[in-house]
Amino acid sequence: VVQTIGARVADLVTPEVVVIEDAGIARLLSSGYGRTKVNQIQNKKNIIIQRSNFGRRIQITGSSEAKLRARTQIEKLIEDLQKTTHLEIDLRHSDRPVGAIREILKHFGKDLNKLVEGEDCQASMEIRRRKVVLRGAKEAVSQVQNKVEEFLKTLPNSQRETNVDNECPVCFADVEDPYVLTLCGHAYCSACITQYLSNVFDSVKSADMFPQKCMCEGCESPSIKEDYVALLKTEQIQKLYQVSLECFLIGNTSYKPCPTPDCSWVYEVTPIPGVFACPECDIRFCKKCGDSTHEMFEACEAFKASKDPSQSDRLYNEWAARANTRKCPRCSVLIEKNAGCEHMQCTQCKAHICWKCGSLFETSEKCYRHIPFCN
What we know:
By secondary structure, this protein is α+β, with helices and mostly antiparallel strands. The chain contains 13 helices and 17 strands.
């Protein structure tokens, strides 16, 4: 009974890990749309799903059956994400109403939840590019696009008569409830600049996302900590540090995140293989390739190839030749010859073997009589 309970506990605490090789898919899984889909799987399957801070590993904890079902669902989600429709509604065109961005945010909410309510679609407002970005099922994306276009038709298509000094760089309308950026002094509508700074939480991460710069034409001044603290919520500020680190690590070859999901440690990549013990989660891995420790393999490439069934036999034969190791011709256990004559005895089946030709003998005497005449 104790062993049975122990086995069940071990099963529950041993996670199933899904590694996301495609960086683009990893970023999609970390987007609002991806997180929503993963959470739906978690809620249905009675399991716990942990995503690494950088989206490349998903760890599933639960019973064997639940983990298997969840893994299947996640793999299906990854496949579906590769097929989802991506569409951008450009709000910069001259035929768009002045203040369209601000009005869309007012009408549908700053997270645009009202826009996609009931649809298998995710929407976000990318302020810097002045676009509504949609991703989801093709039909749902089309429905939401039509909803946006119909709403824009209800807005007055007035010409810009405002003084450019009072014009919000985001919505191009007169500044409402102004906020002035700390470094450059340019004024924005508080709602517009807040939405712009908040975009980093739901947008697909990229290396050039930070620092976020002023959107006034010709101004490259970055937003700084004082701006974020003044406009964002406390919990958003905490998350901001993590998001900025994610963006820094995208495409960075010198620093990588610890491969353990929910571990926030970052390590420096080394040009030669070496064991690294993460001080936060205690996992050990190779500092060059980030994979499991592989002291038996001098090169990371050889270790990765060893996990490929099509390469394992070749690598084994190469290693056996270098190590002067062979399989026993009777029981196949590995035998290493490091010294002595051509007579070897298997430690498992006790067979007497001529190392030179591989012949088997019942006694050592017979083997010794054979060796001088072995070709």
